[in-house]
C-alpha cells in the first residue's frame, strides 16, 4: 500500500521552492553585470593615451594647455559624476591667452571605470589619491603638481590632501560633493540640508551609505525613481545651470552630444556612477575637517569654490566646512550654480587665484 502525502507537506515544499527561487532572483538582480572590456572585439575602443599602473590597470588622459616641458604649472584635473576627461573647463571655458601667460599644462584623467580608464574592483576613498600620485610620476610631472577637481572629482581632492599632501603644489575643489555622514558635520545642519534634497536622492544616498550592495539594483529597478542626476532631473538644475548647459550643448554637434551622454559610462554604469555613489556617500576613514594644513609655510594654497545657487551640493554645509578648515580659501560666487567653473570668467579667476605667484 503506497504512502499518502499530506496536503500541508506538499504546500510546504512548494513554498520552499518559491522562496528559494525568489532568493535566487533577488541575488541576481543585485549583482551588476561584468564591465564591458576596453579594447575587446565587442567592447569600447581605446583612442586615448593611457598610463599603466603597477597593478596592471590603466588610467586614460588628455592633455591641454602649453607643452608639459615648458609649463610653469602642471595640473591634474579630476572630472565629476557621469563625466569624463574630455569635458573640463580648462579646455572649454578658460582663456587660451591666460593659460599661455601662466604656463598651464593640464592632464585631465578618466577616473577608474569611467571612459577609457580600467575599473578598480578595490576602489576606495584612499585609492584614487595614490593612483593620481603614480600617474603623476609616470607622466614625469615632477615632485609637486596641482590637483583640481569638480563635483565628485572635487570630493576626491580631500583624499589627495589627506594622503599625498607632500606631492601637492596647490589644490582646488570646485562644487565638491559632500558626504552627509562626515562625523564633524553638525546633525542640525545635515538634517536640514538632507531634507531639502529630492526624496529619491535621499533614498539613493541612504542606500549607498547603509546598503552599498543594493546600489546597482536601486538605480536600475523601475519601481521607484533612482538618483536624480542619472537622468538629469530638472528639479536639481538651477536657472544659472540651465544657461550654462544651453551654451555648452549648443556648441556641440550631434556626435559630440551623443559622446557626452554615452562615453563616460561605456564600460557600465556600476563601474562608474554607481561606484561613485558608494564611495562618495559611503563610510570614510577620515573626516575632511580633521586634515592638517598641507601648506603651513604658505608655499601653496587650497581653494574651495561654490555657487550660491547650487541645488546639488548644499552650500550651507560647504560654508560650515570652510569655516572649520581655516586654511581653505573659500570663494562663493553669486548667481552661479553647480556648473560654476563653466560660467563666464570663473575658471580664469580660479587659475589666477591658484597661480597668482607664477606671473
- Classified by CATH, the class is Alpha Beta
The computed structural class is alpha/beta
Topology, number of strands: 8
Report how far apart the termini are.
Answer: 102 Å
Treating each run of at least 4 consecutive H or I residues as one helix, how many helices? 13
In which range does the helix fraction lie?
25-40%
CATH fold annotation: Rossmann fold
Protein architecture, described:
The protein has about 350 residues and is α/β, with parallel strands linked by helices. The protein has one domain: 3-Layer(aba) Sandwich (Rossmann fold). It has helices spanning about 5-30, 90, 95-100, 125-140, 150-165, 185-195, 200-210, 215-220, 240-250, 255-260, 270-280, 315-325, 345-355, and strands at about 50, 60-65, 75-80, 105-110, 145-150, 170-175, 300-305, 330-335. Strands 1-2-4-3-5-6-7-8 form an eight-stranded mixed beta sheet, sandwiched between helices. Strand 5 (about 145-150), helix 5 (about 150-165) and strand 6 (about 170-175) form a beta-alpha-beta unit. Helix 4 packs across helix 5 (about 150-165). The longest helix has 24 residues, at about 5-30. The radius of gyration is 23 Å and the shape is globular. The model is unreliable at about 1-5 (pLDDT under 50).
